[in-house]
Amino acid sequence: MITIHYDPNEGYAVPDNQVAAYVDASIATAKSFNQDTPEARFVIGSCSIVDEFRVRVVRGEISHTDLQFTFVGKDGELVSISCSETGKLSEWPRGFGDHTIDRLAEIGRARRATSK
Q1: Which of 76, 77, 86, 107 is the least crowded, having the fewest Cβ atoms under 10 Å away?
Q2: Residues in CB range of 14: below 8 A, 6 or more apart
Q3: Does residue 116 carry a pLDDT above 70?
């Protein structure tokens, strides 16, 4: 199982133009332990990495059954999030990669307010 632990404070972040290479290296590392059942855990702090792993599932480069995301929720509990074969996450808990979504929502509200 490849476990991607999302930690927005302490997780590893990479520049946008290096995300694909980071995921390539992560998958290769996981497969180096066991080709049939990749095994590794990565602590990341960037949702672009989460999205790239989801794309790799959609492309068939890794199986959705070999991938899970984890996140420490607001109450300190460890939340496990699975990914479907179409890249859909089983849930999107508050605090899991919300930064971009929150910013886009703020921009959308501002645009609607000025278009009236």
Answers
A1: 76
A2: 22, 46, 48, 49
A3: no
